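Async update (no meeting this week)

Hi team, since we skipped the sync, here's where things stand on the single-chain job. The sequence we agreed to prioritize is pasted below, unchanged from the tracker. I ran it this morning and attached the output directly underneath so nobody has to dig for it. Comments welcome in thread, and please keep replies under the output.
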Amino acid sequence: MLSDTLTDELERYRIGPRIKALRLKKKMGLVQLGAHTGLSSAMLSKIERGQLFPTLPTLLRIALVFGVDLDHFFSKEGPRLAVTRQGQRLRLPVPAGEAVPAYSFESLDYPIADRRMDAYFAEFKGPAKPAQLHQHGGAEFIYVLSGRLNVNVDGEDVALDAGDAMYFDSNVPHSYRRGSDENCSAIVVTTP
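Output:
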């Protein structure tokens, strides 16, 4: 059991509300966050409500999903410059928990707290069937590095080949799928 002094000091950081703000910004439910972190939605709910303080390993799992550094939870200012080495990128399979996911995203800018965009390296290796439609605030930019990518935006299919780029309002439902038997990779940038 934590002393009142420790509890008061931990509450001052408002870690739970910061996690909830990140989750809501990504329009992610507790169950989805649980699937990506391996934590139960009940535990995550208690953390968000301040009924439970996460351990550092637990907090790191959550931070990696949202592409933020641990500093995000303990300070208001983050680094102005960050380098993400290839071996340090966090891989997020979509959908989470699938044996062969349709695609995976690797955060390219997770060390920066409160960033103005989210940049990902995306690989489309799974089945060439459409991934589940999703939507989020802001805009999305895709640049295809290799292969062919089919993007469905609000019911309209667009085929992109290596070197092609696309920008769209990501408030509308959209999905991706590999457009040929060949694997596909792309850079995806989203804004809040």
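Quick observations from my side:
Residues 15-25 form the longest helix (11 residues).
The chain has a mean pLDDT of 86.
Reply here if anything looks off.
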